[in-house]
Amino acid sequence: MSKSAFPSYTFKFNTEVVGKSGLNKSRTYNFYSDPGHGWMKVPKSQLAELGIENEISSSSHQRGDYAYLEEDQDATTFIHAMNRQGYEVKIHDHIADKQSKIRNYRQYQAN
After folding, report:
1. 39 lies in which domain range?
2. 99: Cβ–Cβ under 8 A, 6 or more apart, which residues?
3. Backbone phi, then psi, for 88, in 5-degree steps?
4. Is residue 82 part of a domain?
5. What CA–CA distance (Å, rounded) separates 80 from 9?
6. Cα 57 from Cα 59, distance rounded (Å)
7. Which of 5, 58, 59, 99 could form a disulfide with 107 if both were Cys (CB 3.0 to 4.6 A apart)?
8. Where are the alpha helices (DSSP H) in the chain?
9. What is the per-residue pLDDT across 2-39, written as a single tens digit (0 to 9) for each?
10. Helix/strand number for the chain, H first, E second
């Protein structure tokens, strides 16, 4: 781990596979966590392409063109949908040592 230019954040620069591994295709997503929770940043358009935009709960958040899928249920729903499409999902961890601003983003709502 190394310190970033932002003293309140520590970043891990490793990438790990979540869900099924060894699939032919892969995509990497940013995963942000604070001391109490975590979220996977995913383009909202990709949720629609996978047909899961209405399966995402209001426990997730959104800002601009991105959804921040909560780690317990919604990120798992997304990972399983990607695995079904033949994609291995990798995450790039961003770990904060204070409360994340993602908590203040709007609750997720499908369009």
Report:
1. 10-102
2. 34, 35, 36
3. -80, 135
4. yes
5. 29
6. 5
7. 58
8. 44-50, 74-84
9. 333 333 333 344 456 666 677 678 899 999 999 999 99
10. 2, 8
Q: Is residue 58 part of a domain?
A: yes
Tokens of 10: 């520590």
| Lookup result for tokens 């949720």 | 47
Contacts of 96 (CB under 8 A, 6+ apart): 8, 9, 10, 32, 33, 34, 35
Q: Is residue 75 part of a domain?
A: yes
Among candidate residues 95, 92, 96, the one with its CA nearest the CA of residue 16: 92
Position 41 in a domain:
yes
Per the document, the length of the chain is: 111
pLDDT digits (tens, 9 = 90+) for 74-102: 999 999 999 999 988 999 999 989 999 99
Which residue bears the tokens 């997730």?
Answer: 60
State the CB neighbour count (10 A cutoff) for residue 51: 9
Q: How many distinct structural domains can be found in the chain? A: 1
